[in-house]
Design goal:
By secondary structure, the protein is of the alpha+beta class. 44% of the residues are buried. It has 54 helices and 32 strands. The strands form ten sheets. Strands 14, 15, 16, 17, 20, 21, 22, 23 and 24 form a nine-stranded mixed sheet that branches.
């Protein structure tokens, strides 16, 4: 502790006061002496010149050249020496020619080229250093207290000692950022992260995101230097302070000779001055680094020299001008010396440095600020001496008063003299942060802009504002020069007002970050600029977010192109109508009253009513959402009426009321501002433009608190201080700036009061207990600090987490100066060897970070819309929210808030947090509704109200719960222990069986199967397996886990394999479209046998041939699951003929077996049926992603919103070593939204940064991170950037647009673009045509008019081809042949429409056959249910108009006819399908015309449909039976074979017609289903999983309907309240008919809603009445 305090005093306090100089005990006397004399020279030289020479330019003429020469020489020599050490030669020589043990001397001429990482030949590599011994300075990897590592070419830690003992050489290769970061590049060192909270004690840069404590693998650590080296690498001061006496005596004796040999080595570098002239350098790089900081680039050296000269020039000019007298001259010379010395040897770490280790930018802070202050002093002095007029006054103050300028000059002089104290406290940020902060503050408070996300974004946004002001200034100036009178405003000023509103609207809708816009322009003009490597395995993994952002920006730009024109013209017309002059002053009062009323209701009343605890008095929200009482949210959030009211009020407020107020004030104030009494025309036009732009942009972007500013300004300057008004426009402009600072001061004081309240203070350490009473007498200073920090927008942070508050340096709204975001460790960014050996990234935090990444994507989609709907309450720039769920706890930081866009950053905390985190999570999740306390008693509380204690406690918190049921799409996580699921041998045998069956499934369904069977290499490799008596007696096979183990032969024989799996092979082969021989001796069985043996042998090899041991079995299972297959047997080398067998067959087999093994627990015997197992695997293939969590495909699947995922996780963290089966299911999650005081977050973040970076507090249990429930101190501090905090995920800055929120688009409409306008016009025209057609067609309707009023064959011929082409892309499977010998196969997939296009029919000559696999439009049916009338049987005749017959897609219920309707043959009874197949088989080849006439489809496909224009094929059953018989008799006697076949075919058609009528019409009509229409009233009664039940509770009317009647088929669709549909089937309890029997005591209805089928309990629907 004492040494750490001394180090802080020496390297922190004293170095900050002196500018970087301090006595370093770790360096030699020469280095310290050089530093001292150099600093004394920089201090004494200007002071001596000032004292010795007269105050004239002679001082400047002498001082500046000397400083210039000094810095040029030092920088040039330093740069050349570093280049020499990087690229020069190193020569090693022995000090003695006689070494112990007969060692041979090293050759002195041995040299090696060393390339720096920034050298021309190796820009991204590292730095190779030469030999180091114990006394030598460590390599460049570390500064201050940093460590160094030696790495051999294989990246193994250690030092290569010479076998002969001549030298101890450590060759290291370090990252290019080592010097700047002050830490070794740990990505090149063989290590694995230790505990996550070790990140808090790191003193290296936060490039290492996992942790800072490093645990090494001790490969060959045998030498004493190596042991010392590892102590350094641990970065632990306890190990660094240990002496070598803790080694064993044997090890010390063994290392002593080698140590002595190493100490005798001498080395020097050759520094070439000329081509043949060189000198020797007898020191290494770190000695040079100890002398001066390194400037890697030439530009850095030039900048340092220029700044040093500029400091000397400005400082000497101020000295000779006489601004400083007496002792202040010496103080000013001290400031000059500190600024110049920091360019040579900077303060590291500086109190305002945002990062650990060496910070290159901080070296330029002092000279830059010194130059700015000196320039400001000179300008203010010049102005005070040359400006004598007080022409411009504002609120009674003359800002050009010389006395005021002199006072400002003296203030800047005092501030400059206090530079040592200022930089010690850390009140000024580094230069790039200051530029970003300054541009952001000017853009927000002067131009009404938004917060920025980077330095480039700040400059871009500031320049855009300047350009906008420049464009508008000309119009305003011209309008002000025109003639004005009381009732007439120039038209040019109206044009200015219209353009002002339009430009403000456009700027408010644009993000400050131009990267997406640049990317959009690049993609439009240079679409092929991004070249992809086709061999890259990650080239297929494409992140959809960038394209989504580009599309959003493109839509907004197109919308702005139209809307800005409309807005400009509209407000120009309003302004030019003289409404703002004629209706005064009534219009002003109306607008003020309107903005006050609408703003009060929108931003105060409605948010308070929707809060969890309104006004901290009520115990529940007064306006509740539909999800408030739901235990588990199953659908997206329902849009409530008050949300619609909120969004419409907000829309009117910011798009109508505020623009009218600003235009009203522009009209009434412009001429007065530009008058000579005020600001004159030039300056007045500028102020009018800036004020109007600021007020309009801020009202468009963030109107939350604008109504308060407007009402207060009107009341203040109308009734209180009317004489001080400077026109209402300027009053609003300046009061908006003042109110933003007052709001910030209010939040700071509220944070302070809450944090130091004595009744809830939590002391984290003894220092906190001391600081609490000590801070009481300094409360006045605290308020002054709060006011100052609010003025400059700086954080007010508690010192070491105590009650003492200090002001930090200014930061932008973004706060963190580094663009840090989590890099997830997976197989895409780790070496293959580390993946196979050590499984990097296997800790829970790294694996769970993907869920926060998915949460970020969900927020990107919906956050902006939810904020506009008021679901997060009031919000403003910089606000912080916490989303808390069962396991997810994330802090959301709102950075940029624009008009329809929000840029945010999400910081995810650990799933299993610390004790302190858990206590704070409990505080934000527990309810206070049941509290009945009143002081010290418990009298209770009023109904729906909080008790006194609860209400009082809620007011003394830095956070508040806004919403308890915020619905967001995410994943529910289920983890099961794999050990418990595979504990016994029987369970492992089941897994192995499914493993084998999975391999067989994937090999039989592979499109390359025929190629594999014909492969000669594979045939040769499997030649032995073709023998019937072949047996594989590998010892890895185990009778306990292999079901086909042959006990007789002690192995797995082909015979035993066929006994168990031949039926499965035959069934899988039968499901192929092109069947293959699957007999016992077939090549297919041989291939399956070889693959299954290979797969199990690989499992045994990965299990170290210890499958009987559970731990070994799990290890092997996990190795195979992640794709680590080791082919160890020569009998399996045939697999190398095509590695696709491993990738596409064996790996999916082991992964699928894990899912099937899980299903086995729910229904043990279900998968004994091959068809059920086949369908299950097919369904899992479609709906489930099974992958290793380190696979990039896993991340891609999660971010692509895959419905279900499964993985096997191996967790090695905190001493645990377990295997978990992780199951993810996409669903809607419920979050609690907690709003945290943003000044509390900024203050705690700033305190942590100062404590860990500058004060170097390495205590992982320090008091500043202990739990404090009133401020959520632990959760906030844990969310800091690593290594200051330890979040498991920090997202990049992400922008959410309102255009992507579907519910908001339904309320306000989508983006206005040319394409959307065209679509609207076209759809409106079509609706008009439908209406006219329905009106002109007697007895018709809109649907009939679509089909031209009838269902003629001619009108529908064109639709057949269209439907055929559409179904060829997404249709089901079809038959491979149409001849008599064609084999009919059952469908492969459970959802044929979800599969890719099936193989086309091979018999194209038959039109009916070619249409058999396509869904064709029909004028008989319609998808959506509608009311219709059913005509009598006798009213139909062949070839007549069939408009009265209505049939739905199911074939069970009637509905109106439509040109887009379909009737599918999959709903026909099997007998009818078989007869239709007979009809098509009777069709002779070449009878295209006959086929076209009848249009009979084949029943070979489950997705076949009836052609639309051939109604007589299924509807002609209404014709007379006699006619058909007569036709048949007439053609029976002397008919040709073709005629006989046609007659036979007509007979079959007639019989089919009867069965169709009976099945589709009479039976449903008899059951009462023909007229039943119901509406869904309670979606919670829907049985969404009844169709996939394992026990087959219900008998479904059709298997296809069962597959479609559940969530697995609905995908993103879900039944909602109010939906209408037809009941097509019902199950009644205790019914005698098994097909109508319900398995529960309630009636279940099968309802068709559009094209979806829903099983729902009868009580959940409402009958809407009978169909007519």
């Amino acid at each position: 502790m004492g040494s750490q305090v001394l180090q802080i005093l020496r390297q922190g306090v004293w170095a900050a006061l002196s500018g970087g100089w301090y006595q370093d005990p770790h360096q030699g006397a020469g280095v310290n002496a050089l530093h001292l004399y150099l600093w004394l020279f920089l201090l004494g030289f200007p002071f001596t010149l000032y004292m010795a020479l007269p105050s004239s330019m002679m001082i400047v003429a002498v001082y500046c050249p000397v400083i210039a020469a000094l810095f040029i020489v030092l920088k040039m020599v330093n740069y050349r020496l570093h280049r020499a050490l990087d690229e020069g030669e190193i020569v090693e020589r022995n000090a003695s020619e006689h070494m112990d043990r007969g060692a041979k001397p090293e050759q002195s001429g041995v040299s090696a080229k060393r390339k720096d990482s920034n050298g021309p030949s190796d820009p991204g590599g590292g730095i190779e250093m030469s030999e180091f011994i114990r006394e030598a300075t460590p390599p460049v990897g570390c500064s201050s207290r940093n460590s160094y590592a030696g790495i051999d070419p294989n990246n193994q830690v250690g030092s290569g000692l010479s076998r002969l003992g001549t030298a101890a050489t450590i060759k290291g290769k370090f990252s290019s950022t080592l010097y700047e970061t002050g830490g070794c590049d740990m990505s090149l060192v063989n290590f694995e992260p230790a505990a996550r909270r070790a990140s808090n004690i790191c003193d290296t840069d936060s490039h290492v995101s996992s942790s800072t404590s490093v645990r090494f693998y001790p490969h060959d650590l045998l030498s004493l230097p190596q042991i010392r080296l590892n102590r350094l690498l641990t970065m632990d001061t306890d190990l660094l302070e240990q002496q070598d006496i803790d080694l064993s005596p044997d090890l010390q004796d063994h290392m002593q000779p080698q140590e002595e040999a190493a100490q005798k080595v001498k080395q020097y570098y050759r520094f070439w001055i000329l081509p043949k002239l060189w000198i020797s350098i007898n020191f290494d790089r770190l000695t040079l680094l100890a002398l001066f900081d390194r400037n890697r680039e030439i530009l850095e050296n030039v900048l340092a020299v220029i700044l040093a000269i500029l400091v000397a020039f400005l400082g000497s000019v101020l000295l000779i001008e006489g601004f400083f007298k007496d002792i202040w001259v010496f103080q000013f010379c001290l400031v000059i010396a500190s600024c110049q010395y920091s360019l040579l040897k900077s303060v590291q770490p500086d109190s305002s440095s945002p990062r650990h280790g060496h910070n290159r930018i901080i070296a330029y802070s002092r000279p830059v600020y010194f130059c700015l202050c000196c320039g400001l002093i000179w300008l203010l002095d010049y102005g005070s001496r040359n400006i004598s007029t007080t022409r411009f006054r504002l609120y009674g103050m003359a800002f050009t008063n010389p006395l005021l300028l002199l006072s400002a000059r003296d203030l800047v002089i005092v501030f400059t003299l206090c530079f040592p104290i200022v930089f010690f406290i850390g009140l000024l940020p580094q230069v790039n942060t200051f530029v970003m902060y300054l541009c952001e503050q000017l853009d927000i408070h002067v131009f009404g802009g938004n917060a920025t996300t980077s330095l480039l974004a700040a400059l871009y946004s500031f320049i855009c504002s300047i350009v906008a002001v420049a464009l508008l200034y000309g119009l305003c100036y011209g309008a002000l020069k025109d003639s004005w009178d009381g009732q007439h405003i120039p038209v040019l000023f109206s044009i200015f007002c219209g353009l002002l509103v339009a430009i403000s609207y456009h700027l408010s809708r644009q993000s400050s970050d131009p990267s997406v816009l640049f990317s959009l322009v690049q993609s439009k003009f240079f679409p092929n600029s991004e070249d992809k490597n086709p061999e890259d395995p990650l080239s297929e993994v494409k992140d959809p977010l960038p394209e989504k952002l580009r599309n959003s920006v493109s839509e907004r730009l197109q919308s702005d192109l139209i809307v800005c024109i409309v807005i400009g013209v509209l407000y120009f017309a309003i302004h030019v109508s003289t409404v703002f002059t004629v209706l005064q002053p009534i219009l002003s009062y109306v607008l003020y009253a309107l903005v006050g009323t609408v703003g009060f209701v929108t931003h105060y009343v409605l948010p308070q009513l929707r809060k969890q605890l309104p006004w901290h008095c009520f115990s529940h929200p007064l306006l509740k959402t539909k999800e408030y009482y739901q235990f588990e949210v199953r659908n997206a959030a329902h849009v409530m009426w008050f949300e619609k009211l909120h969004i419409w009020l907000l829309f009117v407020e910011k798009n109508v009321i505020y623009p009218l107020i600003v235009l009203n004030e522009l009209s009434s104030s412009a001429k007065n501002i530009a008058s000579p009494k005020k600001l004159d025309t030039e300056l007045g036009a500028l102020m009018i433009t800036i004020a109007g732009l600021k007020l309009l942009r801020s009202s468009f972007s963030s109107p939350t608190c604008q109504y308060v500013t407007v009402i207060f300004t009107v009341l203040f300057f109308t009734f209180d201080y009317k004489s001080f008004t400077e026109t209402m426009l300027l009053d609003l402009f300046f009061m908006s700036i003042l109110f933003s600072k007052l709001w910030e001061l209010f939040y700071k004081l509220r944070f302070v009061y809450t944090y130091i309240a004595p009744w809830q203070i939590t002391w984290g350490s003894a220092f906190h207990a001391f600081a609490q009473p000590f801070a009481v007498p300094h409360s006045a200073m605290l308020f002054v600090q709060a006011a100052v920090s609010a003025f400059f927008s700086t954080p007010l942070n508690p010192f070491l987490g105590s009650a003492i508050f200090i002001t930090s340096y200014a930061r932008p709204v973004k706060f963190w100066e580094r663009d840090y975001n989590t890099k997830r460790v997976d197989h895409s960014n780790t070496r293959l060897a580390s993946q196979l050996d050590r499984n990097p990234g296997s800790d829970d935090n790294n694996l769970n970070s993907i869920f926060y990444e998915h949460l970020t994507r969900s927020l990107q989609h919906s956050l902006c819309g939810d904020l506009l709907l008021g679901r997060w309450g009031n919000y403003s720039t910089g606000d912080c929210f916490i989303l808390a769920s069962d396991y997810l706890n994330a802090l959301v930081h709102l950075i940029e808030i624009g008009n329809g866009l929000v840029t945010f950053q999400l910081r995810g905390l650990e799933f299993r947090g610390t004790y302190c985190q858990q206590r704070e999570v409990e505080a934000i999740t527990e309810g206070v509704e049941e509290d009945e306390g009143f002081c010290c008693c418990e009298p209770g509380h009023l109904p729906h109200m909080l008790s006194f204690n609860a209400a009082f406690g809620q007011r003394w918190l830095a956070w508040e719960v806004l919403v308890t049921k915020y619905v967001l799409e995410g994943y529910s996580i289920t983890d099961n222990s794999a050990a418990s699921m595979l504990q016994v041998f029987d369970l492992r045998k089941i897994l192995t069986t499914y493993y084998v069956k999975g391999i067989i499934y994937y090999v039989t369904t592979s499109p390359k199967l025929e190629e594999w069977l014909a492969n000669e290499t594979m045939q040769e490799g499997l030649r032995l397996c073709t023998d019937r008596n072949y047996v594989d007696v590998d010892p890895t096979f185990n009778p306990n886990i292999d079901e086909d183990y042959d006990h007789r032969l002690a192995g797995i024989s082909r015979e035993s394999f066929c006994m168990i799996y031949l039926n499965w092979i035959e069934y899988c082969c039968s499901r192929r479209e092109k069947p293959l021989d699957s007999s016992k001796d077939s090549p297919l069985v041989t291939l399956c046998y070889g693959l299954c043996v290979l797969g199990r042998r690989a499992l045994g090899t990965a299990s170290h041939h210890m499958s009987s041991n559970l731990e070994s079995f799990l290890y092997g299972l996990h190795a195979l699951f992640k794709g680590d297959f080791r082919i160890s047997s020569i009998r399996d080398e045939w697999i190398f003929a095509d590695m696709e067998l491993l990738r596409k067959v064996v790996v999916p087999g082991i992964r699928m077996s894990l899912k099937l093994h899980q299903d086995h627990f729910t229904s043990p015997d279900e998968y004994d049926d091959p068809s059920v197992l086949y369908e299950a695997i097919t369904t899992h293939e479609e709906n489930l992603v099974i992958a290793h969590e380190g696979d990039p495909a896993w991340r891609s699947a999660v971010l692509s919103n895959s419905p279900s995922l499964l993985a096997l996780r191996h967790v090695m963290d905190d001493g645990t070593n377990e295997y978990k089966i992780i199951m993810l299911n996409k669903r809607y999650l419920s979050f609690r939204v907690i709003k945290v005081n943003k000044e509390c977050v900024r203050g705690l973040w700033a305190g942590q940064q100062q404590e860990l970076v500058f004060l170097r507090n390495r205590n992982p249990e320090r008091g500043s991170i202990q739990n404090a429930k009133q401020a959520l101190r632990n959760m906030i501090n844990s969310s800091c950037d690593q290594p200051i905090g330890y979040p498991i995920y920090v997202s990049p800055l992400t922008t959410s647009y309102s255009d992507s929120h579907e519910q908001l688009k339904e309320i306000l409409g989508g983006a206005i673009s040319l394409g959307n306008i065209r679509n609207f016009i076209v759809s409106t025209w079509h609706r008009l045509r439908k209406g006219c057609g329905a009106g002109c067609n007697s007895g018709g309707n809109i649907e009939d008019s679509d089909a031209g009023g009838g269902a003629s064959c001619t009108s529908n011929n064109a639709t057949i081809n269209e439907s055929q082409s559409s179904m060829s892309q997404g249709g089901g499977s079809a038959t491979t042949g149409q001849g008599p010998g064609a084999v009919q196969h059952p469908p492969v997939a459970a959802h044929p429409t979800a599969l890719p296009a099936a193989h086309p029919p091979t018999h194209p000559s038959t039109l009916g056959t070619s249409h058999s696999s396509h869904s064709v439009q029909s004028s008989l049916v319609r998808h959506s249910p509608a009311r219709a009338s059913v005509a009598s049987h006798s009213s139909y005749c062949y070839g007549s108009r069939h408009s009265s017959l209505r049939t739905s897609t199911t074939g069970f219920v009637p509905c109106r006819r439509s040109s887009t309707s379909q009737i599918s043959l999959r709903n026909l009874p099997s007998s009818i399908q078989s007869r239709l197949s007979m009809v098509n088989q009777m069709e002779p080849t070449g009878q295209t015309g006959v086929s076209a006439q009848h249009g009979l489809p084949s029943s070979s496909s489950s997705s076949q449909s009836i052609p639309a224009c051939k109604q007589h094929a299924l509807v002609g059953f209404l014709g007379t039976e006699g006619g058909s018989n007569a036709t048949e008799t007439q053609s029976g006697g002397n008919a040709s074979p073709a005629n006989q076949m046609q007659a036979k075919k007509d007979d079959v058609i007639y019989r089919i017609q009867e069965e169709v009528f009976r099945s589709f019409f009479l039976l449903p009509l008899w059951k009462g289903q023909f007229t039943s229409k119901h509406g869904l009233m309670d979606p919670s009664q829907v049985l969404e999983g009844i169709n996939v039940s394992k026990r087959k509770e219900l008998q479904w009317p059709d298997e296809v309907i069962r597959l479609k009647a559940g969530r697995n088929s609905w995908k993103d669709w879900s039944p909602q309240e109010g939906m209408e549909g037809h009941v097509i089937h019902r199950w009644v309890p205790c019914s005698r008919d098994p097909s109508s029997r319900s398995h529960i005591d309630k009636t279940i209805l099968l309802v068709q809603i559009e094209d979806k089928y829903v099983a729902v309990v009868e009580t959940g629907v409402l009958e809407l009445g009978a169909e007519v």
